[in-house]
Amino acid sequence: MTRRDDLIISRQREQKDCGLDFLVTLLKDGSYTGRIFGVQVKATVSTPKLIESKDIVEIQIDLGLSQFIAEFSFPVCLFFFTLKNGQGYYKWILEPVMAEGDYSRLYWDNTNNLYRLTNEGISNIVSMVNRWYDSRI
């Protein structure tokens, strides 16, 4: 994400774990938009058991997602890294969804279904967040 010029990444330095490690601000033409999403980062030294199906990877590990995150009023993503092989994955915790009638909401996803973290994946995250905010206007 740090390679993109349309994002400002701010590390959260709370003394107590509020559930977020980073707050990401989306820019448009270099200007602030007021659009944000949160990122929680988790990692494990060993490579957990993976079940791959198409683009989805199910990780057999307790991700320890905090119910506190459900109180946020903006999208939140989980970035999960396996340190042994350096692979990154992502999933939505509070997924931005657009329902019928242009109604936007956040869907709590407590599954362990993740996607490989790639440049394309990051672009998809940013696009989803922008579409969600657009639907609220």
Describe the structure.
It holds the Pfam family DUF4365. It comes from Limnofasciculus baicalensis BBK-W-15. With 137 residues, this protein is mainly beta. It has one domain (38-135). It is 12% helix and 47% strand. It contains 1 helix and 9 strands, in the order βββββββββα. The chain has one helix at 119-135; strands at 7-11, 22-28, 31-44, 50-53, 56-59, 76-82, 87-99, 103-108, 113-116. Strands 1, 2, 3, 4, 5, 6, 7, 8 and 9 form a 9-stranded mixed β-sheet that branches. The mean pLDDT is 84.
Task: Offer a concise description of the structure.
With 137 residues, this protein is mostly beta strands. The protein is built from one helix and nine strands, in the order βββββββββα.
- How many helices in DSSP terms? 1
As a percent range, the share of strand residues is over 45%
Number of strands: 9
Which ranges are low-confidence, i.e. pLDDT below 50, for 5 or more consecutive residues? Answer: none
Q: H/E series, N to C?
A: EEEEEEEEEH
Task: Compute the number of structural domains.
Answer: 1
Gyration radius over CA: 15 Å
Helicity, as a percent range: 10-25%
Can you give the mean pLDDT? Answer: 84
The rough form would be described as globular
The largest sheet, given as strand count, sense and whether it forms a barrel, is:
9 strands, mixed
Q: What is the SS-derived class?
A: mainly beta
Give the N-to-C terminal Cα separation. 26 Å
